[in-house]
Design a protein that fits this description.
This protein is α+β, with helices and mostly antiparallel strands and 571 residues long. It folds into four domains: 194 residues, no CATH class; 165 residues, no CATH class; 61 residues, no CATH class; 126 residues, no CATH class. The protein contains 21 helices and seven strands. The strands form two sheets. It has a five-stranded mixed sheet with strand order 1-2-3-4-5. Strand 3 and strand 4 form a beta hairpin.
């Protein structure tokens, strides 16, 4: 047993955690505080999840107070960073910054994983060594994974039972599984119970770890041969072939990541024992020594892309990962140069130090000090103002799609600059940030719709029932995003019959389409018109203001044979 786990304590903590998570979930569902304010919701959820889970994974009857002393500061720091991530969702009516929440979840999990093994090492009152940290990391990873597997199986059994009772027309269990006040606490209790079970059979967990390490031991030579073979052929093929893939730097970094992970899994004891025959040992020795070359290749590839297109969030991440991998690789190389066959001592020191460095950076990327969205926005605007790209070709949608709050703030500033340079781009920016919740669906009026409509030559040319019909078509569906569109009503005689034909052009940041509306059987109906937009124009309002409207006769007439009509696509 793991120093006689406090079972009652674990069950109570799991139950309390489940109740708190239920309340937080219901606040989101019912749109009450803190569910309406990400600045409070995300840190509360972060603390409610991280502190109990880390406590359950490390606490024993003999170290309860010390566990609290070490875990509490870390989880508070993590929660404060969660508040900053929540702040990046503001203003919530305009910004959808879910990517930064996903990033926070992943980096927070990595940081917690790293912090946990250092804290557990500290709680054991033993000298920190890489072999012990490695063992703790594998234990935590396997226990955490097994607990989630147990919860998923348990949840599946509950659903199976609900399905069986439903067949018997007993819907009580089926309805119960839809209640969040039941589901969340029950799953938390299952997770706590799983921790008790798996932490009490640590020997089994260690056996699983040994099996995985044994598999990696056989895979490492194969990976090293691939690595050496790739590097040997690179001088003959050149780097251009690698860059043509568009993912060359990423592939090289993946090769580094796997090599470093496999080497550490095999040589983690830092002992003088060699797990391989001398030939294989020397082969791996060389494979580790050349890892810095891959860092240089990755840096070069990233520099080319950044110099050409500037920084983006993805490239910021690539730079950070490349720097971390380079620190590992050059650290190992220095150890090999200094100690030759005794380089495993250096490996241990490098890994202990770099583990803390990785932990710190996983926290910093969720802080103002290393906000990749702000860095990317600054880089792209610098390219615009330096003339590296034009106002016409500037990627405005990237700011909305990938830069969240930072993109929103910078584009609002840019709108003032665009007034005298490219006013048509202001409409594109305004379409990106539309508050769909500002007007209740049930109270939408024609006056609301007319804010997005331009009439040519004037509104008086159009029957009111037609405007109402277009409005109904645009706003009737729940999924309709009509408030991100601009509408142009054009009255023009297209068939030379003396009466105006009515064309409605619908324009947004992604497409431009047109419909010809006509009255048939006292109902307004429409047919789509083929649209040609060779210059990808997203703002045709100026054309209407300048009366650039004309009718072009087709070069080729239609051919009619009996009831069949044939038209050519050439005009």
């Amino acid at each position: 047993m793991d120093h006689q786990l406090p079972k009652a304590f674990i069950i109570i903590v799991s139950l309390i955690q489940g109740i708190l998570l239920t309340l937080l979930y219901q606040s989101v569902e019912h749109q009450v505080w803190p569910g309406t304010e990400p600045l409070w919701l995300i840190p509360l959820v972060t603390f409610t999840i991280s502190y109990p889970v880390l406590t359950l994974l490390s606490i024993t009857k003999t170290n309860a107070i010390t566990t609290v002393k070490y875990l509490l500061p870390f989880t508070i720091i993590l929660s404060i960073l969660g508040a900053y991530v929540g702040y990046q969702q503001e203003p919530v009516e305009f910004v959808n910054n879910s990517s930064v929440i996903v990033t926070f979840c992943i980096t927070g999990l990595i940081a917690a994983f790293k912090a946990l093994m250092y804290i557990q090492q500290r709680l054991s009152n033993q000298e920190i060594s890489y072999s012990s940290l490695f063992k703790l990391s594998w234990r935590n990873f396997i226990i955490f994974g097994e607990c989630w597997l147990f919860v998923l199986i348990f949840w599946g059994i509950l659903h199976l039972g609900a399905g069986l009772f439903s067949v018997l027309e007993i819907d009580f269990f089926k309805e119960l599984l839809r209640k969040d006040w039941f589901v969340i606490p029950v799953l938390n209790l299952a997770f706590g119970f799983a921790i008790i079970v798996f932490r009490n059979i640590i020997f089994t967990v260690d056996n699983i770890s040994t099996i995985l390490q044994t598999l990696i031991k056989f895979l490492l030579p194969a990976l090293t041969i691939v690595s050496l073979g790739f590097l040997a052929t690179l001088p003959f093929t050149g780097l251009d072939v690698l860059w043509k893939t568009g993912t060359g730097s990423m592939l090289v970094m993946w090769l580094q990541v796997l090599t470093l992970f496999f080497v550490n899994a095999v040589y983690q004891d830092a002992s003088h024992e060699r797990p391989y025959h001398n030939i294989l040992h020397r082969l791996i020795f060389v494979g580790v020594a050349i890892l810095p070359i891959y860092s240089v290749i990755s840096f070069y590839g990233l520099w080319l892309r950044i110099d050409q297109y500037g920084l983006t969030v993805d490239r910021c991440w690539a730079v950070l990962i490349c720097v971390l991998l380079a620190c590992f690789s050059f650290g190992y190389l220095i150890g090999i140069i200094k100690k030759r066959d005794e380089w495993l001592e250096t490996l241990s020191k490098v890994n202990i130090s770099m583990g803390i460095v990785v932990l710190v950076f996983m926290l910093l990327v969720n802080s103002p000090l290393l906000n990749f969205q702000a860095i990317s926005a600054s880089s792209q605007l610098k390219r615009l103002h330096n003339g590296n790209t034009s106002y016409e070709k500037f990627d405005y949608t990237y700011f909305d799609r990938s830069l969240g709050r930072q993109g929103y703030l910078e584009l609002q500033k840019l709108k003032k600059e665009l007034k005298g340079i490219a006013p048509e781009k202001i409409a594109i920016i305004e379409r990106m940030y539309v508050n769909h919740k500002s007007i209740d669906k049930e109270t939408l009026t024609l006056d609301d719709f007319n804010k997005f409509v331009n009439y040519w030559p004037s509104q008086d040319e159009f029957p009111k029932p037609l405007i109402k019909a277009v409005y109904d078509k645009a706003a009737k569906n729940d999924w309709s995003s009509y408030r991100e569109n601009s509408y142009y009503f054009i009255a023009q005689d297209l068939n030379e019959d003396g009466d105006p034909d009515y064309v409605v052009i619908e324009e947004n940041n992604y497409s431009t389409s047109a419909k010809r509306w006509f009255l048939k059987e006292e109902q307004w109906q429409f047919k789509y018109m083929k649209t040609s937009n060779p210059n990808d124009n997203k703002f045709i309002k100026d054309y209407l203001l300048n009366n650039q409207i004309e009718v072009i006769k087709p070069k080729w007439n239609n051919l009619k044979v009996g009831d069949l009509t044939f038209s050519t696509s050439k005009n």
